[in-house]
UniProtKB/TrEMBL annotation:
Pfam families: Monooxy_af470-like. Keywords: Monooxygenase, Oxidoreductase. It comes from the Bacteria. InterPro entries: Monooxy_af470. This is Monooxygenase family protein. It comes from Plantactinospora solaniradicis. One of its GO terms (molecular function) is monooxygenase activity.
Amino acid sequence: MPTRVNRQTVDLSPYPDLVVVYLGMRVNRLYGLRTLMGYGPQIGRSATDKPEGLLHHEPLLWSLFPMHVGIRQYWRDLPSLLSWARSEPHRHWWRNFLRDSGGTGFWHETYLIRGGMEAVYDDIPRQQGFAAFAPVHPARGPMFGSAARVGRPEDTIAPVVSEDELYTQGSGR
């Protein structure tokens, strides 16, 4: 059967520790547009700087109403991703977001080529992704950090905000 489809695939063998992460920011309240517009361009610029280990960055639009945008990133390995997430400017953004989401919700889902997946959903009012079908639990204790959630506690790097700091300094989440 002849075809006009240009069907291709990729060789991922040069990337044995590849990590793919989807992130989204959803406007939950009108004033959340300001939060989204403040973070969005900064995140785009940070990817342009090509942090160590970032292979590719793609912006995504999940919906216009409610406004829900995101990104998909491909990282060489989990330690590269976690190291960037604990560095500036990401560290600053995440600390500020956890103090006050500014009328927005944030989520991410992470997929590792060697196995393991994890997710976190902060102020997301409608369950989506894994949360649409899997049991949802508070991100506390062993479920607090992404490395532990994905089954790679050996790659744990101190979080931007510790669990104790997050829950005892007034955020109450």
